[in-house]
Amino acid sequence: MKLVMPLLLSGIEYLVDFMGELLLVERHQINLGESPRHFHVVTKRFAVHKLNLEEKRSFECKDFGDYAIFLGTSCPLVVNSQLFPGCKRNSIYFTDFRIKLHPELYGCDDIGVYDFARDAIEPYYPPGIFHPFAEPPIWLTPNVNKL
To answer: Is 107 part of a structural domain of the chain?
Structure first.
């Protein structure tokens, strides 16, 4: 039996407007595929850095309070979790944006909620509910001014 180290992927980054401050969110993934050319990518964790463009520095951010960040195939979204029952504070909701690489093999299975306090990922869908060949969900932007 041959053990193969999973291929670490980097460079998946999002710029997020967080209450007027700029965050750089890094998505750390590994390739569980059979080779570096055969992708079955799974997210393992996130790192968030608050950018200070004037000083050309960044600071690691481990807690963003009652807010949640949504990442998908369009613009990132930040919401106050207190305004949306069931939305988890200090978390990142993410979808699988690589479904187009090998949908026949893996479908859309890299979807979840990253909890910063526990440094853990929970599945977004309960086991057995989500079909692996379905398209990834989209995040609908609420009009928080009307709440």
So the answer is: yes
Q: Rounded to 5 degrees, what angle do the CA atoms 76, 41, 92 make? A: 30
Residue 38 DSSP one-character state: B
Q: Assign 143 a pLDDT band (cuts: 50, 70, 90).
A: low
User: Which of the two residues, 124 and 68, has the higher pLDDT score?
Assistant: 68
Q: How many of the other CB atoms lie within 10 Å of CB of 77?
A: 17
Give the chain's mean pLDDT: 77
Tokens coding 140: 């609908």
Query: What letter represents residue 32's amino acid?
Result: L
pTM, entire model: 0.77
Domain count, the chain: 1
Residue 112: Cβ-neighbour burial (10 angstroms; 0-12, 13-18, 19+): buried
Nearest 5 degrees, angle CA 119-CA 56-CA 65? Answer: 30
